[in-house]
Amino acid sequence: MAYPAQYRYTKDHEWISLANGVATVGITDYAQHELGDVVFVELPKPGTKIETGKSFGTVESVKAVSEIYAPAAGEVLEANGELQNAPEKINSDPHGSAWLIKVRLANPAEVNALMDAAAYEKFIAEKGQDASA
Amino acid sequence: MELRKTALNGMHRRLGAKMVNFGGWDMPVEYPSSGGLIAEHKAVRSGVGVFDVSHMGDIRIRSGSRPGGALAAVQHISMNDASRLAIGQAHYSAMLYPEGTFVDDVIVHRLGEDDYLLVINAGTREKDINWVRENTRHFDCVVEDLSDACTQLAIQGPRAADVLRKLTDADLSSVKNYWFTHGTVCGLNNTLIARTGYTGEDGFEIYVPSSVPASEMVWSKVLEAGREFGIVPCGLGARNTLRLEAKMALYGHEISETINVWEAGLDRYCKIEKGDFIGRAALEKAKAAGLARTLAGLEMIERGIARDGYACFNERGERVGVVTSGSPSPTLCKNIALAYLPPAMAAPGTPVYVEIRGQKCKAQVVPTPFYKRPKPLAQQSAPKN
Is B236 exposed, middle or buried (0-12, 13-18, 19+ CB in 10 A)? Predict the structure, then answer.
């Protein structure tokens, strides 16, 4: 699966995309592949403040619980309610319809410090794993 | 420390399996090419799957100069009554510490008049072998560690017999559950074929030489023979969810060196009346003293997945127990768990709260096993027409 060029990526395998000051956050295809079948998602309510690098929710596969970390600080505007009944969407469309939260960023410039798609692809390749499988 | 590998390690990697460290072994947890853990689990419940379980250990105990030495040794170190085993029969048992707690659980096979095979867990292999050697020293028997000599494959599911039948001259229909036979499998003579498993389904475990070529040949032929039945390679992830649904114990979770036989609910495999064995005296005392905790099945009512180690609370908010294994159940589409609870809270329907990331989520005690396989169809009567 391709990594969208307009997104930015974290070392914890979240992605963030920014439009008109509102960011959308999800987990990467690499992350969903590492997790396996996603069966449960827990996301913050609108109004929750999230802090850079701090956990704001969890994604669970059959085997494991995985924390999701905020790529940037801000206030949650919306959580993707569809994932509650269809968490498996994270496996099939992690970069699209299975976004996790929308956030009003405190400082949109924070995003510039994150990896672009090319850097992220290099990062996961260096982990010695096949991210495209 | 370098991870240990089974003879099929290269095969798993070529299949693109996700590998994990399991008790010091580099093992496949799931195969994305099979569709992943849930697909593997469902294949075993509805069709057939194959597992590499070569990390399991194998200890052979034979009599020394006189008959009876092997049986006496096996009786001393294990809690079930091996004197009841016919040649060709196996049973579930456990080796216990003097405290009545678990060294490991084992499957004891009676290979011959004075010849037993104990199949033991991977994570406890060295401990078990040392334990067996140490505690059989005064018996007239010979203990052999065959663990590295065997590749063990588990072919599991309602179609397992259909797959294996294509690969062997052995009459599988005469091999009942927890019995075994020897036959030619994939051209390999005298292969041990046991109707055993760790999935709650019908199935077989076969033991072949651990050379890479022999192991890969058998693995490939099993997959080829199973194709028409939808066979998939299955990893330890599905093995765990399958055994949990069937309430089969996992060492380090439901059984351990601090949990005794009665607490684990394994009474029917423990034969106090057979005579003395290691752990018996402590178990008799424990029985008289009464149970402080017992293993119970839970089903989550509120959203959330109970995981190993999560604390359990009663309605008054008092901490009463702990989850030993928990997972979504792919068969039941519910979140299930096993937990140690006070006996007074073990009745089905009792509310229990599991603490999940600081939140107490409601669950209830349910009867176990969570899943029981349908009884094989009785001889169908001839259609009336």
Answer: buried
